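re: ur question from earlier - yeah i can do the single chain one, its not a big deal. heres the input i used so u can compare w yours
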Amino acid sequence: MRRTRGSLSALLSGLSSGSAPLPPLPWPRWVRRLPHVVICLIAVVAAIGGIDEMSTSYRLGVEFGLLAGTSQGVALVLALWRPFPAWWLSLSAMFIAAVAARSNMADMVAPGPNWPWIGPTIASHALILFLLALRMPARVALGVLAVTGLVTAFVQGLLGGGPYSGTGVLAVSVFAVAVLLGTALRGSREARTQLVEQESLTAEERSRRTLLEERNRIARELHDVVAHHMSVISIQAQVAPHLVENPSDELKENLDGIRQNALEALTELRRVLGVLRSENPDDAYGLGAGTGAAPDAPQPTLDRLDALVENTRAAGLAVTTEITGEQLPLPPGVELSAYRIVQEALSNALRHAPGSVVRVELTHFPRGLQIRVVNSSPDRPAPPSPGAGHGLLGMRERAMMLGGTLMAMETACGGFTVAAFLPRSAATASRTPTPRPDDSTGPKGPPDPTGDTS
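and the output i got, formated as tokens:
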């Protein structure tokens, strides 16, 4: 009983409510009103046909026939904006006209007129039900169809009349087809809308997952840098008491605490590494993009840049390098990120610009390191790439993590440029505003590393 009352309440609330406007059509703007024009023309034809047939066949007179026929036409036009009130108006006009014509059919000769529905009213009411089913839930459309069938059965089956040609079965059948067609089109439209929303959510989730994967890969690589410093702290804390004559117990206790904290932090780092490190990293071009067969090997620095360039030349690219500026010591994280950015840029050149000439430029400034990797246009079409296609995202994450900037764009000659600036120290990075992701590929490129704003 509760479920029945709930269903009836939902149906009644749907029946008494308004409706949404006619769904927009994917047509040019100047033809979007074409359905409205067509339905208005059909309404005029249905009204004229209804006026003629009700005035003559039903013998209702010109005034009554004009009122009943016009009501059907007005209901059809109203259905473009308010289909539920239009349905009420159409059904009421049919009921009143059928009951009024009943008394005039007693002396008619068989087979008599079509009753209780005539051709124009069947057409207009079917269109009204179709427009209603397009914009209202299926349970409401089926409820409206059921009420229409019950009223038709009551008029034709219980009231009856003189000689007439019954049109109740035909009319209800046409109405059912109209409702089913409208419901199917509405369901198809909703399914397409949900599919577009799901594709949007899937693309967003894929982008988010890609970002997390790149950040995890960066975290795995930086683990070795952090672990090295923690190991050095532990060893220095252990050796420090032997460098002082007669160290106090308080000093020994503090140094021992430092060593224990360093060892505990190192242990936790190793646990995190066990979760983050992938089991089968791959390197499609032999440039050392993954950890390879030696996952415990130290992370690369710019000292290994020559080996990276030689591997790239062996893979078929002509690579030149240029290093300018005073080479001051760089933090390990900056060196690692610089190496990975150059590595990924060379990998992209191998994938997408076979046979091109690549130039790697490293410029050392007091504030940090500027990197430029420029390749010319390829001399042959690029084969299908086995890479994951997330290299630019990883490079941007590395630069932004250090407070730097990165720009990637095509050149005028058909090549590609990757330019980045990595601050030297955390203090410099804290003073450098963190770029937004959508600004990383803007036309302005990385800021002037010399700090000149003139």
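The two ends are 81 Å apart (CA to CA). not sure if urs matches, ping me
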